[in-house]
């Protein structure tokens, strides 16, 4: 079922604006991976040539990764299945090392972290760990002084995301890192939404642990990493054949590690120029959408990842909007109640203190370096038509008032943590 | 969880063609204004249900002929997802031509059935059933406004699960009749709790007056109390089967038999015994005993005496009793 666009001369095209969920794997990355499936398939841990011949490619991928993040040679970057594993590893092993077998009992995180952090914290709470979920300000960011005020002698770990997947808002990681260093508390950051979008320099900021996933920066799915400063101790999550220096067992995923190396190199080389180009397209799209009445965008642009817009459209329910965008072959995202399995309102929007209405009307558009100006033009046109159609149906814009007694009191929104 | 659940369903693919078609082109979307209705000699009723802040909202317009109480025309406006818009559209269609007293009998289940492509395939996935509940609520509200009565007066019983329209009475009855022990079993028997899940326990999408976990706990507690009371009554009347007794009753019953038929012989020989424990072992009742005094170490204590005790208890109480000395 297709909606006939009012503007008939706009041709139908496919536009992917959900790059904070996942990205297209860059064909150059696929090309780099290709030889390591059926040609050079050896296990790098084997002694024979089939195995040892793989080492140069792996070393190259490791070099690419260290360079991209400006990690020191004394640091470890361990390849994992992705940030979900990396996040679980840090949280669960800090629990084992410093809480079960130490004298700490407290972890600090924020209300707006990814489920890979929040659900793991919930699991640790069930094991008796105290977890503080820091609030965010109305821009959606954690303030460094808030972190400082919640650190106690019992705090084992602070874990705060570098940038938000939902809003794109960037947290003050450098400041939080300094506070943690000064207080002697371990600091972890989920940098999934930062790498490839903003500069990440691990010799400029103090972080003990940092998680990332390749598929967020045009690498393949199912591969990522955990950075461990100064190769400090951290009990492994996966036990087995002692690969990766005993830190993470399991036969090395050679083609995917090669792909990650290529992807992170492409995503971070000339990042300023690439991001300026994405930012220009994002700003043009945002400006055009802000011409609509009764809309608002979360967070100021200067402190936001340059590819992200979280826009709230009065009177247009999020899933309904996604539906119309999908009819126009546009892929976007919403955290609205109706679209999610658990029917909850967008927790990030609630956390930033947005009006309850807005929690159900958020649409996230996230661009990539492959997004074109033609696509932006198409999205602007289709987006505006969709808003017009849905507002025409919407009760929020109806003119005839209800019969006396037929009105509704404001809904008490049930907000659960 | 099973193979079919490993990657989760694609939400929109589970919508019927009718839902998709009506979301794209709702037929009854629009407004009726008071002046228009009055000019035709009709009465306009406009009722709201839900709000933007709840995540979905609907406004229902009824143009009613006051001479016949018939809804001659109807329209809706909706803030909601595809299911909410399609449900509102079908609800509006179902109202047209009906008398108000007939329209008030339309339920969310009628709306969902009307959205199906084929009678036995649901129109929407379970978590979306909730979206059609508003249709039912807004009709009751409109009818209440027209008839000058409270909307709740149309509800004759307490509905616990709005999606599947299962009442408190039905739930209590099903739990009792089928001896249900878990919420999952309740959902299997009644479908209650199988859709938006708000009614399972506090903390869901909507706050409810009743939750399945509480109803289950309360009903089971009542059942337990009744069972204990029945056991006590039956025992008082002396016609209780050993297998149906509570543990305390079983211990008392065994003690009584021992006192009556066994202990005197043991005491004559300078010994005694006591009951240590009773354990249910599959269909058997294992009665653990300890010999005291002269019985302790007596050669017959593990043969003849034991056999006598066991066969006495088996004969007088239950064939499933086994006696084990420790």
Q: Quote the CATH topology of the largest domain in chain A.
A: Aspartate Aminotransferase, domain 2
Question: What CATH architecture of the largest domain in chain B would you give?
Answer: Alpha-Beta Complex
Task: Determine the oligomeric state from the structure.
Answer: heterodimer
CATH H-level homologous superfamily name of the largest domain in chain A: Type I PLP-dependent aspartate aminotransferase-like (Major domain)
What is the C-alpha radius of gyration of chain A, as a whole number of Å? Answer: 23 Å
Round the Cα radius of gyration of chain B to an integer and report it.
32 Å
Level-1 CATH class name of the largest domain in chain A: Alpha Beta
Largest sheet of chain B: 3 strands, antiparallel
Stretches with pLDDT under 50, minimum 5 residues of chain B: none
Global structural class of chain A? alpha/beta
CATH class of the largest domain in chain B: Alpha Beta
The coarse overall form of chain A would be globular
Derived from helix and strand composition plus strand pairing, the structural class of chain B reads alpha+beta
Could you walk me through the main structural features you see in this protein, from its secondary elements to its overall organization?
The complex is a heterodimer of chains A (417) and B (326). With 417 residues, chain A is an alpha/beta fold. Chain A starts with 14 loop residues before the first strand and ends in a 24-residue tail after the last helix. Chain A has 13 helices and 12 strands. Chain B has 326 residues and is of the alpha+beta class. Chain B has 3 domains: 3-151, Sufe protein. Chain: A, CATH 3.90.1010; 157-237, no CATH class; 243-325, GMP Synthetase, Chain A, domain 3 (2-Layer Sandwich). In chain B, a hairpin with a 4-residue loop joins strand 4 (159-161) and strand 5 (166-167). The mean pLDDT of chain B is 89. The chains are: A alpha/beta (417), B alpha+beta (326). At the A-B interface, helix 11 of A face helix 1, strand 1, strand 2, strand 3 and helix 3 of B.
């Amino acid at each position: 079922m297709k909606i006939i666009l009012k503007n008939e001369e706009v041709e139908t095209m496919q536009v992917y604006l959900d790059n904070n969920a996942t990205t297209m794997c860059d064909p150059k990355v696929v090309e780099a991976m290709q030889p390591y499936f059926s040609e050079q398939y050896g296990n790098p841990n084997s002694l024979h040539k089939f195995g040892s011949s793989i080492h140069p490619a792996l070393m190259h991928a490791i070099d690419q990764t260290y360079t991209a993040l400006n990690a020191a040679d004394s640091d470890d970057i361990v390849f994992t299945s992705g940030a979900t594993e990396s996040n679980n590893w840090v949280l669960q092993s800090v629990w084992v090392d410093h809480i079960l077998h130490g004298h700490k009992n407290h972890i600090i995180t924020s209300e707006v972290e990814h489920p890979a952090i929040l659900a793991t914290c919930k699991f640790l709470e069930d094991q008796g760990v105290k977890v503080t979920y820091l609030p965010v300000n109305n821009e959606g960011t954690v303030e460094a002084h808030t972190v400082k005020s919640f650190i106690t002698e019992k705090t084992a770990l602070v874990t705060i995301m570098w940038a938000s997947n939902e809003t794109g808002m960037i947290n003050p990681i450098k400041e939080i890192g300094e506070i943690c260093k000064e207080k002697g508390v371990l600091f972890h950051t989920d940098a999934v939404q930062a790498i490839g979008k903003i500069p990440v320099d691990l010799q400029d900021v103090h972080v003990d642990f940092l998680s990332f996933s390749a598929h967020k920066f045009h690498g393949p799915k199912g591969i990522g990493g955990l950075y461990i400063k100064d190769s400090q101790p951290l009990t492994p999550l996966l036990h087995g054949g002692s690969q990766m220096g005993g830190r993470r067992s399991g036969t090395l995923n050679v083609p995917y590690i090669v792909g990650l190396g290529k992807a992170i190199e492409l995503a971070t080389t000339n990042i300023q120029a690439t991001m300026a180009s994405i930012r220009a397209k994002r700003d043009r799209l945002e400006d055009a959408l802000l011409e609509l009445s009764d809309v608002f965008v979360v967070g100021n642009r200067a402190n936001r990842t340059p590819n992200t817009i979280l826009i709230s459209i009065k009177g247009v329910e999020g899933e309904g909007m996604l539906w119309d965008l999908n009819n126009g072959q546009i892929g976007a995202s919403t955290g609205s109640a109706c679209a999610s399995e658990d029917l909850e309102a967008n927790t990030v929007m609630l956390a930033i203190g947005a009006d309850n209405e807005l929690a159900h009307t958020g649409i996230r558009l996230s661009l990539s370096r492959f997004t074109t100006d033609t696509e932006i033009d198409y999205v602007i046109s289709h987006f505006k038509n969709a808003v017009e159609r849905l507002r025409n149906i919407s009760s929020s814009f109806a003119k005839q008032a209800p019969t006396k007694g037929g009105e509704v009191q404001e809904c008490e929104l049930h907000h659960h943590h | 969880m099973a193979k079919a659940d490993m990657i989760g369903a694609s939400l929109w693919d589970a919508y019927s063609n009718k839902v998709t078609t009506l979301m794209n082109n709702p037929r009854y979307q629009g407004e009726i204004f008071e002046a228009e209705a009055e000019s035709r000699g009709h009465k306009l009723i406009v009722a709201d249900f839900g709000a933007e802040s709840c995540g979905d909202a609907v406004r229902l317009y009824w143009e009613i002929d006051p001479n016949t109480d018939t809804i001659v025309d109807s329209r809706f406006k909706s803030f909601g997802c595809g299911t909410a818009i399609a449900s509102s559209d079908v609800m509006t269609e179902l109202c047209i031509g009906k008398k108000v007293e007939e329209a008030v009998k339309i339920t969310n289940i009628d709306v969902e059935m009307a959205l199906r492509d084929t009678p036995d395939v649901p129109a929407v996935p379970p978590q979306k059933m909730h979206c059609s509940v508003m249709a039912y609520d807004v009709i009751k509200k409109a009818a209440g406004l027209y008839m000058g009565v409270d909307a709740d007066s149309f509800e004759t019983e307490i509905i616990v699960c709005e999606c599947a329209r299962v009442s408190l009475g039905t739930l209590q009855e099903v739990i009792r009749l089928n001896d249900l022990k878990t919420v999952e079993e309740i959902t299997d028997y009644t479908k209650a709790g199988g859709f938006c899940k708000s009614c399972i326990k506090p903390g869901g999408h909507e706050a409810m007056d009743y939750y399945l976990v509480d109803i289950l706990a309360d009903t089971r507690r009542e059942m337990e109390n009744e069972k204990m009371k029945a056991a006590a009554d039956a025992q008082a009347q002396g016609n209780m089967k050993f297998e149906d007794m509570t543990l305390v009753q079983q211990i008392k019953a065994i003690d009584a038999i021992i006192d009556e038929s066994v202990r005197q012989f043991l005491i004559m020989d300078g010994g005694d015994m006591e009951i240590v424990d009773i354990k249910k072992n599959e269909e058997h009742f294992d009665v653990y005993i300890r010999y005291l005094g002269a019985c302790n170490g007596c050669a017959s204590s593990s043969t003849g005496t034991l056999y006598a005790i066991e066969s006495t208890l088996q004969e007088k109480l239950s064939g499933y009793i086994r006696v084990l000395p420790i």
